[in-house]
Amino acid sequence: MIKREKYLQEIEQYEAQNLIKIISGIRRSGKSSVLLLLRDKLLHQGINADRIIHVNFESFTYSELNTAEKLYQYLKERIKSNEKTYLLLDEIQEVENWEKCINSLHVDFDTDIYITGSNSHLLSSELATYIAGRYIEIPVYTLSFQEFLHFKNEYDTTKESDLKKLFQIYLRKGGFPLVHTHNYTDENAYKIIYDIYSSVILRDTVQRYKIRDVELLERVIKYAFNNIGNTFSGKNVADYFKSQQRKIDINTVYNYLHALEGAFILYRVPRYDIKGKEILKTQEKFYLSDVSLLYATLGYRDRLMAGILENIVFLELKLRGYKVFVGKFDSKEVDFVAEKGGLKLYVQVAYKLESQQTVDREFSVLLGINDQYPKYVVTMDEFWKESVDGVRHMYISDFLLSGDF
What residue ranges define each of the domains in the chain, with the CATH number in brackets? Predict the structure, then answer.
C-alpha cells in the first residue's frame, strides 16, 4: 500500500489534541486506505493491537451496527477503560444518528477517534451540534499529479519517464487510486470509474436524498458536466430544460445540485469581486471531484479541454488547503482567486495560447490587478514560456509540481 504522506502528516498535527478527526471525500478516493495506513503507523509506534478498534461499515460483518445505540454498546464492550483506545470508524454515515454515539464515546472514555464519511453534509445537520467544536475535518481528494507519479513509479511496468506523456495519462484517466494500481486501458479504466460513479449516485445521492426522478437527476448531471469551467446557476439549468420542452422547478435543480455536492460529485465555487472584496451570490462555477467522471459518463471530450484543465488546477489548489473563488474584475473573469493563511494567488487557465488575442485575454486581466500577490497563466503550450510583467506562464504539469505556492 502506497503511503499518502500528505494526509498522514495532516493527521499527525492533531494527534496530541483531544479532537475527533473526520476524514471526508468521495467514495474510492482513498479514505479507507488512509485509515489503514494510520493503523499500521500506530502499530509501528508500539500501540497494542487490542487498543485499536477498526470498523468498516461497508462490510456485512458490521451491518447490524446501524444505529447510535448499537454502535455505542458494541464499542463500549471493547474499549480499554484504563488505557487510551484508538477508534477507526470507516463510512460512519451508514450509522443512524452517529453523532450521538461519537460524542458519547468522546466524553465517556479515553479515546482517540478517527472517522471517515462520503457525504460533505455529514456535519450540517442539527445532530452535528453534538460534536460542534470537538472535531477537525480532513478532506481527502483523488490523486494529485504528484501522487499519481508515485503510483506510476510503483505499479507501472513500462516505467515511462517523460513528464508530459505522464501528464497526458493523468489527464485521460484522472486520479482515482484504483485505476493506477494496474496498467488499465482507457476503456477498462472508465468501466471501473463508471462503477464508482454509479455507486455514488445510488447510495450517496438517490438513496440518501430520496430522489425519485433519477432520469431527471442524470440530465442535471449531464448539464453540469457539459458546462465544466462555465459559470451557471440553477436558473440557467431550469431555462435550458425549458428550451428542451422539459419542465423542471428551479428549487428541484438546486436540491439536485445540493445532493451532488453532498456526494462529492461536484464542488461549488463562488464568485468573488476582487475590487469590491465581497462574495457574489450568483453565477458560480461547479467542478468535478475527478475529471475521469466526465469521461466515464459522457466520453472524452476535447472541446471541454479548457474546463478540464481548470478542474485539475482547482483540485490542486483545494488539496493544498486554499479557499478557492472565481474572480470578477470589472467585466472580466479570473479563473481562480485562491487564499490561505493571509496569502493569495491568481490563476488563469487556458488550453493553448494560439493567438495574440488569447494571450491578451489571459494576461491582461491579471496585469490589471494592482497588488503584489503571485499571478500565473497555466496552459499546455510546450514552447510558449514567456512571462509578462511579473505574470508567470507555466506548463500545467510544472505548475502542479511547483513548490512555489
Answer: 5-139 (3.40.50.300), 301-405 (3.40.1350)
